[in-house]
Design brief:
Two copies of one chain form a homodimer. The first copy, chain A, has 348 residues and is an alpha/beta fold. The first copy, chain A, folds into two domains: 112 residues, Aspartate Aminotransferase, domain 1 (Alpha-Beta Complex); 217 residues, Type I PLP-dependent aspartate aminotransferase-like (Major domain) (Aspartate Aminotransferase, domain 2), CATH 3.40.640.10. In chain A, 38% of the residues lie in helices and 17% in strands. Chain A has twelve helices and 13 strands. In chain A, the strands form three sheets. Chain A has a seven-stranded mixed β-sheet, sandwiched between helices. A four-stranded antiparallel β-sheet of chain A has the order 9-10-13-12, with helices on one face. The first copy, chain A, has a two-stranded parallel sheet with strand order 1-11. In chain A, strand 6, helix 7 and strand 7 form a beta-alpha-beta unit. The longest helix of chain A is centred in the C-terminal third of the chain and has 24 residues. Chain A is globular and about 55 Å long. The N and C termini of chain A lie far apart (53 Å). The relative contact order of chain A is 0.17.
Chain lengths: 348, 348
């Protein structure tokens, strides 16, 4: 009764299931199955022992400086966030008011719609083409269009829109385009260099996936400094804690760990893709740490349920007008073998 | 050009100065000068070593369960936040839409006004009486009044409105009243038991001050469960990281540390109050970990500046229509001695 009508009416975003026990094969929320760089653990321990009584640097400056070196931008092009969820929230609140329009592709990350609902704004879903490319409709200037989200690589498909195409679309748009690069470290290229070429292009990243740090909550935005300045007004004063800033800076500093982890995930992804295709699934080439498997003529919810009974968690998704599929995170080879053995029993 | 007009027009909240060096006496942001409980450091190290690859529990359940025991409520009465800033943001976004009204007392925590501006809502400041009590105006139902904030103990005054008076006011209000108990562990009593008695009363707490964990970013809200359910829709899915949840749960588990820390701060506060009064300052009795000192006929900005030249940071505040003062955090005895020696030189 006390709440805003848009909040009252919302169902709320439901994050992927987090089963309470460790004795499961968890391939449902695109976490990285390997432990993070030991440098990260060491940096966190050092920060904890140094004392937590003081407020952290409000801008997460130690991370900004490290990330600037790695990314080849200046620190004032970087905004730190408490997970990239925090970044998406900040950007939405800064740009999108009640009744405004926020655009996203379909099917993609459901949270973007939730962010629009929280602002009492409208969300417009522009369908991907059947080959997961984007049509001109994605660049149309709409009435009160204020922000466009594009996850790239996309979820659930794992597909990638080439940077040249994104630049083309952004140049036609009347508003900023946030390229959500949560999975980009598993892709062949990225949009980072577009940020300097077009002020409307912003890139967000997370350390949850490729750095194996979902539990740390750290993400960041790269955008031109005059945009960053406005977003700073919207963020909570101390949105990133001292431990996360120290850990995240250490993570970006260990490039060798990232390269090795990426190589392992990509090898397992290739094997997973191949084996699932051999079972008659359609699997589009993925540039992320998951694959999207569909199967015409076979209802997939029962497959998902039977996997779950065997303590193998994947994500079942059913997109109206598009169809259903299983999104399978790339786990360890052992986890993927367990998954493959079970799904072969079910559909083989 | 791309931004919402209310964001464009905002100056943005400016948090207290964080000088870059350790060689200062820092009494300006009400941090706790003592190291946190060793249990906290140990819990953080354990959590870091256990791995951060998985998403944290979305509700911070380990903290909720521990806090529920300590506070004598059920876990579903508790919402975890990334600092109490996050709690204040969530509550404001859930209740206050564009053009709605948010009420706060004056002078108090400036951030509440910023939260209204971010929502493109209006803020109404109701002045405290000259003895820092609240008049009936604080309980008037206003057009589109959606949320009332009351910091208790208040900042900058450190004064406390008795729970019975708060209940009286809340019963007359048409909307929720959030009692911000950031400093309440330094007070004689608190409003926790009112939450069950009146659904409009909500209590927020932070671990930044009394638990010496400003760097960890952890706060929480206690409210009736049907309200908590709505706030959950608004928060980021994983707003509290695994390290903060583990550390915060450990902090609440070490009641002996809290009692000892509180006793030290209260003893130093009494000595600080007494000595500053002897210098001719007016100091209202504080129930927080800071004191508010005013001095008729003596301009205080120059005093603040001279202290700063000596690397002693306090907070200078000047409230239009109310006057100026120095807010001095209760540091260690050594820090307070350094402050007293210097201010005696300046005004003595």
């Amino acid at each position: 009764m006390y709440f805003r009508p848009n909040i009252d009416a919302m169902a709320g975003y439901v994050p992927g299931e987090q089963p309470g026990t460790d004795r499961v094969v968890k391939l449902n929320t695109n976490e990285n199955p390997y432990p993070c760089s030991p440098d990260v653990v060491e940096a966190i321990e050092r920060a904890a022992r140094a004392g937590l009584g003081r407020y952290p640097n409000p801008m997460g400056q130690p991370f900004r400086e490290r990330a600037a070196e790695v990314l080849g931008v200046e620190p004032d092009w970087i905004l730190c966030g408490n997970g990239s969820d925090d970044i998406l929230t900040i950007v939405t609140r800064a740009l999108v008011g009640e009744g405004d329009l926020l655009r996203l592709p379909y099917p993609s990350y459901i949270l973007y719609k939730t962010l629009a609902e929280l602002q009492n704004a409208r969300a417009e879903e522009v369908p991907f083409e059947s080959d997961w490319s984007l049509s001109e409709a994605f660049a149309t200037g709409g009435d009160r269009l204020r922000l466009v989200f594009l996850p790239n690589p996309n979820s659930p498909s794992g597909t990638f829109v080439p940077p040249a195409r994104i630049l083309e679309l952004a140049e036609r748009l009347p508003c900023p385009l946030l390229v959500d690069e949560a999975y980009v470290d598993f892709a062949e290229t990225n949009c980072m260099e577009l940020v300097a070429r077009c002020e409307r292009i912003m890139v967000s990243r997370t350390l949850s996936k490729s750095y194996s740090l979902a539990g740390l909550r750290f993400g960041y935005l790269v955008a031109q400094p005059h945009l960053i300045e406005q977003f700073v007004k919207v963020k909570d004063s101390y949105n990133c804690d001292s431990l996360a800033v120290a850990g995240a800076a250490a993570a970006l500093g260990d490039g060798a760990w990232l390269a090795e982890n990426r190589a392992k995930i990509l090898a397992t992804r290739a094997r997973l893709t191949d084996r699932v295709r051999k079972l008659g699934f359609k699997v589009v080439d993925s540039q992320a740490n998951f694959v999207w498997a569909t199967k015409e003529g076979t209802p997939l919810r029962p497959v998902f349920e039977r996997l779950k009974q065997q303590r193998i968690y994947v994500r079942y998704m059913n997109y109206a007008g598009w169809g259903e599929g299983l999104r399978i995170s790339v786990g360890t080879d052992e986890q993927i073998d367990a998954f493959l053995a079970e799904i072969e029993r079910i559909v083989g």
